[in-house]
Write a structure and sequence with these properties.
Chain lengths: 189, 52
């Protein structure tokens, strides 16, 4: 159930990012998309636990994804932490607006700062979950409703991942995603 | 990026429809692809002003 909660939490965050993206009309940058990929990876690890039963390998997928996401969100936070550093010219400036935060903030934090919190929390949660060895023992047959719930959750994950594939293709094609804010997304033309 | 999400979508699909455990290797491939994109984007010396 804990894994199911983790999986649905990640799916919820990804859908929330979509709502944010469309309501503010802000296109995600490369680093934002990579953080979303890391969240899908975490959700996938949890989904494997839900669908196939708890296994250290599944938690490994969560941990590797969370470390990947944490590195990216820390990098993006550091990029915007000093407004006097112009990332375009890689030079310090006297204007505090040289390196403004990317996007609107949510509850006081920008999304990449929330990323640091979320990925750190996932690493902590996976670590704590590992303390309970009983989960790795062979289980009795699980109730049918639980299997159906797990299947629905994984289907939701697939829908979100497929949606991300389509919107990323519309935004970046098969090449690099530009970071200069002049993206060629025909939806918003 | 599209290929990264495509791999994640395929792995989710095989887990959902076929209960296949090998989908995790696709996720790892997606993450490796993500790391390549990330390291290309970082360009540490120029963008962070670091002397490595």
């Amino acid at each position: 159930m804990l894994n199911f909660a983790g999986m649905t939490a990640m799916i919820g965050i990804l859908l929330g990012a979509y709502v944010y993206q469309f309501s503010y009309r802000e296109l995600p940058c490369t680093l934002c998309l990579l953080q979303r990929a890391a969240m899908v990876g975490i959700a996938f690890g949890a989904a494997m636990n839900v669908r196939l039963g708890p296994d250290p390998r599944h938690y490994g997928v969560c941990l590797v994804s969370a470390m990947f996401g944490l590195a990216i969100s820390i990098r993006q936070t550091l990029l915007h932490i000093n407004p006097f550093f112009d990332t375009q010219t890689a030079q310090p400036t006297l204007e505090a607006t040289a390196n403004p935060p990317f996007g609107e903030s949510v509850m006081g934090f920008n999304l990449y700062v929330w990323g640091v919190v979320i990925f750190g929390t996932v690493i902590l949660a996976v670590g704590i979950t590992q303390l309970f060895r009983g989960q790795f023992e062979p289980r009795k047959t699980e109730p049918e409703w639980l299997g159906r719930l797990a299947s629905t959750g994984v289907a939701m994950l697939f829908v979100v991942a497929a949606l991300l594939t389509v919107t990323t293709f519309m935004e970046c094609g098969f090449g690099d995603c530009p970071n200069d804010g002049s993206w060629n997304w025909w939806i918003f033309r | 990026m599209t290929v990264t999400f495509g791999l994640l979508a395929v792995s989710s699909y095989v887990l959902w429809r076929r209960k296949a455990g090998w989908g995790w290797s696709l996720v790892m491939a997606a993450l490796v692809l993500g790391i390549i994109i990330f390291t290309r984007d970082v360009d540490f010396s120029a963008k962070l002003g670091l002397q490595l």
